[in-house]
Amino acid sequence: MPASPMQFPPKLPFPKWLHDFTGLNTWPDLEPPYIPLDFIDFNKILNIPIHQQGQCYEFPDLRSPKSCSFDCFNCVEVDDVYTCSKLSQTFDDGPSPHTLKLLNEFDKTNTKTTLFTLGVNIIRFPEVYQESYRRGHVMGSHTWSHKFLPGLTNEKIIAQIEWSIWAMNATSGHLPKWFRPPYGGIDNRIRSILRQFGMQAVLWDFDTFDWKMLDTSSQNTRKEADILVDLKKFQKLKFNKGLILEHDAIQKTADVGIEIYNKILKSDQLTVPLCVGGIDYIKKFPQS
Ligand SMILES: [Zn+2]
């Protein structure tokens, strides 16, 4: 859930290399334009029905294991990361004004975490992104503007991924390896695009549902204590293995991240690449 778009205008300059490549002069809004890339082969993109969130039973093809939809059926592929050899935290939807307060806790024990960032937030808070990266935390992509990818055309999916990568590259000079789909929206069509970028999907096996804390009016509201109790149960049941989904875009959810860190996991956790023995980034360019 990105913060309201116009509350913070873009702060990051639009780089010359990106102007030369795209012909544009400013960062896009929530609907980024598709820019063709020579390494993307549309023949390699699998043909799986476009569906909206929860629209899981209207297309028989979607039920086939060939589609492997995570949002509909929790299906994972061999190159998806969805758990970890040590129970570990991950954070989505930043960077935000609350990210560094959270990272200050991790930094006390020199513990690294994984942040799946939104392009639209990177260009609003580039200094938070740069500082998170400088401190050694692993930066992954969470798309440009948090769309449910299985509902988009191939071109729009590519646009969501390419613009998020360009925002990361423009801010800190690297190309991400790890990608978390918004709402867990991924199937083999999305994966067949993602793989052409050399990236891998990161899902989770413990959802904190921390965002439900914000919904104080309904019966679905969740309290910080509920999250801690549920997580401790999971930890015991899974012998301290797993990957936790959290959010650092909002004060309340970032605060739960601090509580989970201090009361449950501390430094006994890993970044996503360390969970699976992978690389942190596809490429890092020298920074001037
Ligand atoms: Zn998200």
Automatic annotation (TrEMBL):
<dbReference type="Pfam" id="PF01522">
    <property type="entry name" value="Polysacc_deac_1"/>
</dbReference>
<dbReference type="GO" id="GO:0005975">
    <property type="term" value="P:carbohydrate metabolic process"/>
</dbReference>
<keyword id="KW-0479">Metal-binding</keyword>
<feature type="domain" description="NodB homology">
    <location>
        <begin position="85"/>
        <end position="273"/>
    </location>
</feature>
<dbReference type="InterPro" id="IPR002509">
    <property type="entry name" value="NODB_dom"/>
</dbReference>
<keyword id="KW-0624">Polysaccharide degradation</keyword>
<keyword id="KW-0378">Hydrolase</keyword>
<keyword id="KW-0146">Chitin degradation</keyword>
<dbReference type="GO" id="GO:0004099">
    <property type="term" value="F:chitin deacetylase activity"/>
</dbReference>
<dbReference type="GO" id="GO:0005628">
    <property type="term" value="C:prospore membrane"/>
</dbReference>
<dbReference type="InterPro" id="IPR050248">
    <property type="entry name" value="Polysacc_deacetylase_ArnD"/>
</dbReference>
<protein>
    <recommendedName>
        <fullName>chitin deacetylase</fullName>
        <ecNumber>3.5.1.41</ecNumber>
    </recommendedName>
</protein>
<dbReference type="GO" id="GO:0030476">
    <property type="term" value="P:ascospore wall assembly"/>
</dbReference>
<keyword id="KW-0170">Cobalt</keyword>
<dbReference type="GO" id="GO:0006032">
    <property type="term" value="P:chitin catabolic process"/>
</dbReference>
<keyword id="KW-0119">Carbohydrate metabolism</keyword>
<dbReference type="InterPro" id="IPR011330">
    <property type="entry name" value="Glyco_hydro/deAcase_b/a-brl"/>
</dbReference>
<dbReference type="GO" id="GO:0046872">
    <property type="term" value="F:metal ion binding"/>
</dbReference>
